[in-house]
Every structure is written in C-alpha cells, then in structure tokens.
User: Fold this.
Amino acid sequence: MTVMMLVLAFIIGAVVGSFLNVVIYRLPKILVNQGQIGRPFSLWLPRSHCTHCQRTLYWWHNIPLISFVVLLGRCAFCHHKIGWQYPLVEWITALLTLLVLSLFGFDVKACLMVLFTWWLIALFVIDLQAQLLPDQLTLSLLWLGLLVNVSGMFVPLSQAVIGAASGYVVFWLIYWGFKHLTDKEGLGYGDFKLFAALGAWLGWLHLPLVLAIGAGLTLFVVGVSWLFNRGTLRGRIVPFGPGLAIAGWLVLLMGVTKW
Assistant:
C-alpha cells in the first residue's frame, strides 16, 4: 500500500471514530429515555453541542483529533473539560482501521473486517459505560454477518447459521442455569445477541475460542480491579460485552491470517 492510501485509511478511521462517539453518547440515552425527551433527539438531531453548556459547536470543532488539541481539551465556549473518551475512541478507530487495511489491503474482505471492527468498538464502549448492548447494533451485526457469509466470505453459510443459533442458545442456557443455582442474573440478554452475532461472522467452530478469550479477559480485569480496589467490587456489574468484543475481533483476524 502507498503512503497516501495509509493516510487515507487513518483519516477515514478518525472520521468514523468521531461518529462512533455520537452513537456511544446518544444511543443509550435514546433507548433509556425513549419518549421522554421533549425535543427532537436522535443520532442526527440536535447538532453537535457541548454537553455542559449546550452551545452548538462550529463545524471545525468536529474535526477528529485536531480540534481536541487546538482547544486544549476544553469547550471553546464554556471551557469545560472535554472527556478523554472522545479523542481516545477516534484514535483507536483510526489505528485499528489503519491496521486492518494495511494488513489486508483495500479489497472487499478487508472493508468488511473494518465494518466489523467499527461495530465492536461502539459495543465495547457502550457496554463499558452503560452496561448495555443495544439491539440496533447487535442484531444488525448478526444479520450483516449472515449476509456476508452467504458467499462464504469468512466461513461457509451453514457454519454461520449454526454459529448464530448456537451462540444465542449457549448463553441462554448459561443464563438460566446460573439464575437457577444462584437466583441472580450472570449475563444480560445483550450478551446473548452479541455472541450470536459473533457466531454469524466466525461460525460455530470458533465460538469456544471466543468464549475462552472473552472470559479470560473479563476475569483478568476483575482480578486486577479486586487487587487495587478490594471490597469495592461487591454488588457491581462487570460487563462481559467488552471481553467478547475483543475476543471476536482477535479471532476474526486470526482466522483470516491463519495464525
């Protein structure tokens, strides 16, 4: 790939990362406050604004990464600090987009992998912040995976269909088994749908590896959090979606590169 193509991949990733920030911030609010917001509120309206002073931003305030540096991480109007999530999501989206396209080129398969990456970034951050995996993202990712594999892009269609079904059923069984034994909910329904979506993309043969990596990452985070914050984890919800998102992305790359 030429340097110009790599720069273009980075810019596209940063622009998409800026839009993902909108999805991450607004979609949970739309779902939780559905019908309770007195003004038009969607992914498109109102225009981008400061969440502290509510002033509408100028167009250049939305330039990914650059505006954060120029404004020194503060709102141009009220000078309230801008959260680090915004440039971080833009950076990660840009870098992962660059990584995928530099490894696999600008062909159809690589572009689909980039779409998969973008979806998982949004799900990762939303679940981390709101303990929510919206159906709008999980189910669209599931259907897209099935459509992609109609031609066997990543796995044969039969494996994708079985993967989607078994991914949902396995987590459904784990959920009800855990609830029966402990009278508590160990998983959310969004986890069922995300695991099913990963099955649609990766096929049922890869799901055990996804589950092992996702569970391992989640347990690692819980263990580290417990070491540094002993006693503060009791009663807290530990989202499983971020671990599954990382695991699904890694397994897709491993499958394509034949690691």
Q: What stands out?
A: The longest helix spans residues 3-32. The CA atoms of residues 213 and 247 lie 5 Å apart. The two ends are 22 Å apart (CA to CA). The chain has a mean pLDDT of 89.
